[in-house]
């Protein structure tokens, strides 16, 4: 409220990289992103326990969360809310592809979507399994065709998810204020 009273605008970044407290930690394992087999979790200082946006249940909950938070923000702060920017994978730094030197998500849900992506683009599944890209503190050159294709899938997948979430936030804000006061909510990482 102080921000709005001072005549400033709210720019909200919604992190979707942690499990919400209402998901039982023992159940979260089936919804988590999986790392490359070339870089097991035991090799990392920080274990990766991020929700997999490829998992249908997680994706449903992410959308509900973004919609509900946007609605509450606009109801409580109106035009003071300038932007709502959901973040799934630290897009500010990585342009949708990796975190902690991990080319992920290798979960069964992500691999299934990778197969669908290949079928849509090429008509066939050329790579049954995604390439197991090693992790490390230094980014290594990605030269193989399978590696480049996996990276292209990751770019398309996460950018499509992000575009959808931004659109959802904008539609939700517009519905709250009504058509007579069309809310021009922005997403900082996506301009359309």
How would you sum up this structure, described in words?
- The chain is built from six helices and four strands; from the N terminus they run H-E-H-H-E-H-E-E-H-H.
- It has 192 residues and is mostly helical.
- A hairpin with a 2-residue loop joins strand 3 and strand 4.
- Helix 5 packs across helix 6.
- The protein is elongated, with a radius of gyration of 18 Å.
Features:
192 residues; two-stranded antiparallel sheet; mainly alpha; 43% helix; elongated; 4 strands
- The order of strands across the largest sheet is 1-2
What's the number of extended β-strand segments?
Answer: 4
| Oligomeric form | single chain
Number of helices: 6
**Could you tell me the strand content as a percent range?**
5-15%
**Unreliably modeled segments:** 92-97
Rg, nearest Å: 18 Å
- Indicate the percent of residues in helices: 40-55%
Helical/strand content category: mainly alpha
Main beta-sheet annotation: 2 strands, parallel
Compose a concise summary of this entry.
The protein is mainly α.
Could you outline the blueprint of secondary structure elements for this entry?
Elements: H1 2-5, E1 10-15, H2 25-28, H3 56-77, E2 81-87, H4 91-94, E3 98-99, E4 102-103, H5 108-122, H6 145-177
Parallel strand pairs: 1-2
Antiparallel strand pairs: 3-4
Helix pairs in contact: 3-6, 5-6
């Amino acid at each position: 409220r102080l921000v709005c009273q001072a005549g400033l605008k709210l720019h909200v970044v919604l992190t979707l990289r942690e499990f919400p407290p209402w998901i039982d930690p023992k159940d979260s394992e089936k919804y988590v992103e999986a790392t490359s087999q070339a870089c097991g979790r035991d090799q990392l200082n920080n274990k990766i326990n991020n929700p997999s946006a490829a998992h249908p249940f997680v994706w449903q909950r992410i959308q509900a969360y973004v919609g509900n938070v946007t609605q509450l923000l606009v109801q409580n702060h109106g035009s003071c809310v300038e932007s709502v920017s959901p973040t799934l994978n630290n897009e500010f730094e990585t342009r949708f592809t990796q975190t902690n030197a991990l080319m992920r998500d290798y979960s069964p849900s992500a691999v299934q979507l990778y197969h669908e992506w290949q079928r849509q683009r090429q008509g066939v599944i050329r790579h049954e399994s995604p390439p197991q890209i090693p992790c490390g503190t230094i980014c290594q050159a990605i030269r193989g065709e399978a590696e480049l294709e996996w990276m292209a899938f990751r770019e398309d997948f996460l950018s499509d998810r992000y575009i959808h979430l931004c659109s959802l936030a904008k539609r939700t804000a517009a519905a709250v204020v009504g058509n007579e006061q069309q809310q021009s909510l922005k997403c900082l990482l996506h301009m359309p």
